Amino acid sequence: MSDLVKIGQSRRNFLKVLGVSTVAAGCADPQKEIISPHFKESSNQIPGNAVWYNSTCGECRSHCGITVRTREGRAVKIEGNPDHPTNKGGLCGLGQSALQALYDPDRIREPLLRTDGTDSMGNPKVIWKPVSWKEALNKVASAMVEPGKKRYFFTGETSGSLDSLLNDFVKSLNMKRVTYDPMEAVELAESSELVYGTYGIPRFRFDKADLIVSFGADFLETWISPTEFARDWATRRKESKPPMHFQIEPRLSLTGAKADKWISVKPGTESLFAAAVLKRLTHKADSELAPKLEKLTNKIDFNKVAKECDISVSHIYTVASKLLETKESIVVAGGAPGRSEYGKSLQVIVAFINLVLGNVGRSVIPSSVRRPATSLLEVSKSIEEINKGGVGVVMFHGTNPNFALPSAYGIKLALEKVKPGLVVSFSSIMDETTALADVILPVHHSLEDWGDSDIPSGGRSLTQPTMNPIFSTKSFGDLLIILANGVDKKEVAGGKETFKDYIQARWNVSASDWRKFVEAGGEFKNTDQSLTITTDAKAFNIKLPEKHGDELTVLPFFSVKSFDGRAANRAWLQEIPDPLSLVVWDSWAEIHPLTAKKLSLKTGQIAKIGNRFGELNIPVVVTEQVKDGVIAVPIGQGHEEYGRFAKVVKGGNVYNLLSPAKNGSRYLPLTNAAVSVDLSPRRDKFVQSQITEDQMGRKIAKTKFLNPDGSKWVNKAAKPYHPHPEAAQLYEQRKHPLYQWGMTVDLAACTGCSACVVACYAENNIPVVGKDVAYQGREMSWISIHKYVEGTGEELTVSLQPMMCQHCQNAPCEPVCPVYATYHNEDGINAMVYNRCVGTRYCSNNCTYKVRRFNWFEFDIPETYQWQLNPDVTRRTVGVMEKCTFCVQRINEAKDKAKDEGRKVKDGEVKPACVQSCPTQALTFGNLLDKDSAVSKSSGEKRAYKVLDTYINTQPSVSYLENHKYKV
Amino acid sequence: MFRNFFYYIVILVSLGASCLFAQTPEHYKETEKLPLSEIDAYPDYPVAGKRAGVWNNGQAAFWDLDIIDYFRLFGAPERARGYKPEQPIKFSHVVHVQKNRVDCTYCHWNVSKSSYAAIPSVETCMGCHSQVKAADKPEWAAEIEKLTEYFNKGEQIPWVKVHVMPAYVRFNHKRHVKAGVACHECHGQVGEMPVVERVSSMKMGWCIDCHRARGASIDCYTCHY
């Protein structure tokens, strides 16, 4: 860990950027400082003022719109684009952490050539030799045209112009394109073709449903387009009578935690459950479909299904009857649990359920915009072919099969047989596949590059460079064009020299329109596709699981911390605790208490989880949030390459436990690996961000239970709860002349996705401390997601609560400060003045909410990460207390603007980073003195309460709106 | 009691002595004789002295005298009054402001637009100096040639910052200019400085004094966050 975050010796290394670049400024001891002004006056850049660029996020396939804040030519913050139809302003943690991929200290900075050398002990070792672009490209071009050789191009999922350019490129060069993205829901697209007659991932409208049934689809976290879905879901969830939500999955996901009912089935049996539900619904189908569906489900026996799924049969009846009595509903399936061997069957059944219930065209809209090309079948065939030899060149871009495929596929061995051919990787991060390449051509990050993609709701989204490339990298599109032109295949790019020209030509719009679209971040319009539903006969011929074994199985799942592994090299995402398991800087295995008892394992012990394919050595989290007999492990940790922040997490890659796909499946089934578990000899620290998940009866995160009709459910068995009477105030209340800033947090809408936490890290220059320091409980996050659990088994109620400084009117921290470093200002903010602080930590001891963070060390930030620091926020030195400031730099900026225009700050003008980033708009910020402001209205709602206020009279400025949940 | 009093006397005397014998830092010494005797005013320019018009004479309080200036005596000389670093080009504000009457905001045009006042770009300098060439000004030929060289090489000029502030201070030029604070109230009569020097230590007391007098905010969060 020592190489991860070094505790600095130098007093200050805050990089204050003025002009184009400067030398560091001193804090306590200023030193001679150099100002380098612009060489050339820039038309749109005024030093000290931010410039914003609209672009498109390139982190996953949902392609959310982003707005990038740049200061003096460097991207410092990514926010969601409020005008973009997909995400409408919110952005997930992964999208925001794209900055850390851009400024990754381990980025490849120039073309590299593999040479074999030896280390100091004389052992063979790969030495990467930097070469010029010309030399590298010449080498690749000559390998590309070698006659009589096979050529492969492995890519991730692409969209828009890049997709068409790539297809033309591989076609004209006689290459074979193989696409593989482990997260892409190909089985969903296939089922859509079978049942609706449209190949492609349908659009889901969670705002158009009064009942949500999800078979494993974690649509609030990682599934398909989580930011969009979370937003839609939250608009309805905030209502007083929210849609009912059933989540059927073996491991409680964040989405499950927000559901009204979690039904934990055995992994791989979701399709049986769905088929049983369909059986109860067949009579609603039209006369043509009904007999076919009856035939499909005639073998279903409810009791047998319940036994096979290991649930009570009443669950099937409840879900089915709710579906029957609700007019508008949505049924989805997918995610990691939905990706069993029978994943496609599950999707087909779910598609039928939607069809029968009339959801198709309303909440489920078949669409052909997003057409997945991922095919594991093609991948395995290609690997076989490569193994046979005679390969000229194998190229990789945007995919990492050496990590994301089980080792049983043998891609590593296959690539060794490519010689004398060439393995080329277009990647600027040394991942597991790139490490096997002969030539590495580093490409731009999407924040430095042009690009475009299609938006499912209609229109096109545009990616534009937000800054000059920081290293000697090139645009991937440009490289394809250069390579094609270099081997006299000018027709590939239609005579265009750059990828930007190629995109512009493909968009085919006038110059003024183009400028408009570049400014807006795309061309947004709503196009309704006409619907004709044609069901293929093959759809009725699906296979359902029969007998399920009782052995221990491992259930890999996609998590908001690592996704499929692509996010493992981001320090922020490694540092934030997983909202449900609370684990920091680690991979982990969730095990049910009964299983843990059988295996005699405890939380924190490191277990050896293995089968004939591989082995994991990861710590155990004993929790009831997983089915008995299932070991849930997050996908994406245990990298051997992929940069320092990914490599620091040891324990192994869960993909290696899985067996290869059978029967020509286009995706990798995730739930079929039987394992044995033992205590591991490995010893390591294990860090969880919370000691207890119990509220101790203090009503910190409140949940209101609702009857199915929306009225309040009263627990008659519980002891009557007598709230404290409102406290009488002894002292005169504070006066706020103009503003009193306040916030509300809607716990019903908060999904715990931790986007706000990442936003806060990015905005406020919060240091990443690493595992060792986090182990001592010295993490620095100003806002964190607290988790509380009540009840047991399937009756679990999980409360996720963002907790930041409450900016109390009677703040306990203020009177104890001996040096007046923390005080209450006239805007109602509990201010913290770093340069006054002497580090007594009395305030932290006296803080009721434990939100103050002390700088025990001064952390050395890798140089490249320093370029991301927000120049408007001071980097704190050692010995100084810090905490949430309500993003006072943004408040001051808004006040500054308002003063220029001679007015007061308008409602909604100031949005702290957390509020801005929230995909569900669970957070509201504004002036409490203004009775018409959004925050005044929501803090006056019936659900509003203040944490611990009635006990200790702290009078927080932050109100929480209690969560609500049906009692089903 | 008496003993304590004795110690106080000793401390005071030694402090006083250290003030008297403290070495004058390097940059206070007169560097090099400048080519023009332009310290003499141009006939119609009202010369008032470098510190004329500076708020409170650059003092945080009445006792904040040059002779006992903490920064001058004990460190961070960059923050002391009189800090006068040598610049890569001997740019003279006397010539530009006093003689040629160039307005401050002609070069520092940013000052009312952003929190930074920003040094002009090399291109801005060359805007005039493509006309005013080294050959035209023999006494300044060397300096103008340096500038041309930077321009031809496409390099930025590494100016040395004179008004160095700690990193935890957020000063907004725009707000001050718009509130009608004149440049010289903080920076002194720059037009009378052949080499720009710091005429105020810019201590917090000095800022607060002006903020109080003018009814501006004295909330810590105005400048420290």
Question: Short description, anyone?
Answer:
Chain A is of the alpha/beta class and 968 residues long.
Can you tell me about this structure?
The complex is a heterodimer of chains A (968) and B (225). By secondary structure, chain A is of the alpha/beta class. Chain A has 4 domains: 112-179 and 372-524, Rossmann fold; 201-365, Dimethylsulfoxide Reductase, domain 2; 553-679, Barwin-like endoglucanases, CATH 2.40.40; 736-963, Alpha-Beta Plaits (2-Layer Sandwich). Chain A contains 29 helices and 42 strands. Chain A has a 7-stranded mixed beta sheet with strand order 8-7-19-18-17-9-10, sandwiched between helices. In chain A, strands 28-23-27-24-26-25-29 form a 7-stranded mixed beta sheet. In chain A, α5 packs across α12 (343-356) and α8 packs parallel to α12. The longest helix of chain A has 14 residues, at 343-356. Chain A starts with 5 loop residues before the first strand and ends with a strand. Chain B is mainly α and 225 residues long. Helices cover 35% and strands 1% of the residues of chain B. Chain B has helices at 2-21, 70-74, 93-99, 104-107, 122-129, 141-153, 173-178, 184-187, 204-214; one strand spanning 159-160. The interface between A and B is large, with 48 and 41 residues. β3 (34-36) of chain A pairs antiparallel with β1 (159-160) of chain B, so a sheet runs across the interface.
